[in-house]
Amino acid sequence: MPILNAIVHRIEKPGDATARLVAAEATLPHTDTLDALLEGLNKAYHGKGKAWGHFAVEGTEQASPLAAELADYLADGRDFVALTRAIGERLTTLLDAHLSVSGDLVVLETRFGDGHFLTLALLHHREGFAVDPQLALVPARQLNLAQMSLAARIDLAQWQAGDSRQYLSWTRDRGGKALAEGFAALLGAVEGVDASGETRTLLKAFSDYVEKEDLAEEASREKTSALIDYASDQASRGEPITLEELSEVLDEQQPRAFYDHIRHADYGLSPEIPPDRKTLNQFRRFTGRAAGVSISFDSHLLGSSVEYDEATDRLIIKQVPKQLREQLKRQG
User: Which residues form a coiled coil (predicted)?
Assistant: First the structure.
């Protein structure tokens, strides 16, 4: 059973009234519904844009009580209800200053293999419908996993091991900078790695590697697909890209070739990189549409089958698709 503890605290913010915390007095029992919530919550969280980092050093301006409270909890100094209630109280204060809606704070402690995690998310509601036992249509309020304005995940095992600077991730709220900064301050989070920047650097290193090796188009395409598939799979599971593992995925015959290329060229990449989905998706294909013309092609074709002349702003396609070529011939 991956769920060790789970609880929901409600934060009520009716109109312009002061927000208040309605705290649960006990953890939730384990049910199939709770397992389904965990699955949906993880999927929604992994799809969000996030920052990655670590707790601020105790005694510094960025530090918050959370790290000390977690350490106390893991040492059996306090129970899960008390730990999460303290988080809920600080979150209530934050919401009172920046949001005018109510929400439920869901906190889950989970274990997957050697991994030990604490996940927290503020979820809002949406109006839905259900069918009762008499087959009548009835209104139903549902947790809206897509509207996850604030969420965070802490890899407790990595934090305790002390050998990582990216064991903490949290969502970047698009609704307001002040709220996002307030949430990071609540966590005591310090950004330790730029996920989008690191992902872009990794893809640049890969492009350089393909060019250096002078790979055939088919081989280049296969390696591009392997990289994107591996990175996307890691992103979907909330796991970082491991450079050594990626190098093995790209070439089983020479499993250290790409890794050695990165190290010798000194791209400044960390051994583990949090994948950025948006950057990965942009790398897979180039697309554009304007004035009745729609163009889309795999990124690895640029420089080989497709060339861009920046001086004249022209895109040159060297190998016209057969179907398109036949249409053009008939038109001529």
Answer: none
Q: How far apart are CA 217 and CA 219, in angstroms?
A: 6
Task: Give CA–CA dist 277/193, Å, rounded.
Answer: 15
Which residues, in sequence order, are CB contacts of 160 under 8 Å at separation 6+? 74
Chain length of the chain: 332
What is the DSSP code string of 94-128?
A: HHHHH--S-EEEEEEEEEETTEEEEEEEEEEEEEE
Res 176: pLDDT:
73
Q: In one letter, which amino acid is 63?
A: A
Tell me the pLDDT tens digit for each residue of 153-197: 999 998 998 877 888 999 876 557 788 889 999 999 998 878 888
Spatial CB neighbours of 186, under 8 Å, sequence gap ≥ 6: 64, 66, 87, 90, 91, 94
Maximum CA pair distance of the chain? Answer: 81
Q: Distances from the Cα of 196 to the Cαs of 52, 132, 233, 275, 327, in angstroms?
A: 10, 46, 16, 7, 41
Q: How far is CA 58 from CA 63, 69, 181, 190, 194, in A?
A: 6, 12, 19, 12, 23
Q: How far apart are the first and last CA of the chain?
A: 67
Distances in Å between the Cα of 126 and the Cα atoms of 38, 61, 101 are 19, 38, 12
Indicate the SS3 state at residue 243: helix
The residues, ordered by sequence, that sit 6+ positions from 124 with a Cβ below 8 Å of its Cβ are 101, 102, 103, 104, 143, 144, 147, 149
What residues have CB less than 8 Å from 76, skipping those under 6 apart? none
- Its pTM stands at 0.72
Q: Identify whether the C-beta of residue 317 lies closer than 8 Å to the C-beta of residue 230.
A: no
